[in-house]
Amino acid sequence: MIDRERAEAAIVALLVEDVDLLDPEVREYLIESGALVNGKIRPIRAAVSLVLAGVPPEKAAALVDWRGFESLVQEYLEEFGYRIVAKRFRFAHSGRRWEIDLLGVGPLAALAVECKLWTNRRAIRSKIAAEVRTHLERVKAFVESNSAMKLGLKVRVIPLVVGWFPETGELVEGVPYVPLFKLNSFLMELDPLDGDLAGFDL
Q: Whole-angstrom Cα distance, residue 45 to residue 26?
């Protein structure tokens, strides 16, 4: 693992996309973590790798954009065997229109994922609480509208919110809120049959 000081210094080189400015050990670390592939920088994966090396998320957030954020969430799901059956899935229910960012299906459950790229800590707890309530309502509407059946889902549907801040994951009203840089470990430990998780059986 690289030291935090050198990891922080890498941010400037990554922002200007000049790999020649990277410390050789940092470059090797980014290659090993999949953030640097054939000389091309993958900014979101680089941000995650730097946070895991000790860089504060506020600093690494400079490398994060919305499109890349959602794409990396999808990559992680796929790496853990989830088949993505829909992206930005839109549906209507009870006179309202809804959208779910990602729907990934595993052998025991489907994950209905909301990606929230808040790069500012301000009022983060209240933002998370509000988003969890909305996402629970969204996933309930998804199941009640028979959209899940139309997509061929036959497993439990678990709502999941993935963000950037804060650094610790938590369970809010039964819905996991997970920072992107902890998503891998969350998926590794996830028990889809855990009774503490909010979920909707089909």
A: 14
Residue 14: name the closest of 40, 51, 52 by CA. 40
14 shares a domain with 51: yes
Task: Give the number of domains in the chain.
Answer: 2
Rounded distance between C-alpha atoms, residue 131 and residue 109, angstroms: 22
pLDDT in tens, 90-100: 999 999 999 99
Amino acid identity, position 166: P
The pTM is what? 0.90
CA atoms of 106 and 112, how far apart (whole Å): 11
Give the other-Cβ count within 10 Å of 145's Cβ.
16
Phi, psi of 192 (to 5 degrees): -60, -15
Rounded Cα distance between 45 and 183, Å, is 12
Does 195 map to a domain?
Answer: no
List the beta bridge partners of residue 170.
177
Helix (H, G, I), strand (E, B) or coil at 31: helix
**How many CB atoms within 10 Å of residue 57?**
20
Reduced to 3 states (helix: H, G, I; strand: E, B; else coil), residue 177 is: strand
Predicted confidence band at 122 (pLDDT cuts at 50, 70, 90)?
Answer: confident
Domain range enclosing 161: 66-189
Judge whether 157 and 112 are in contact, CB under 8 Å: yes
Q: How crowded is residue 156: how many other Cβ atoms within 10 Å of its Cβ? A: 17
Do 58 and 70 lie in a common domain?
no
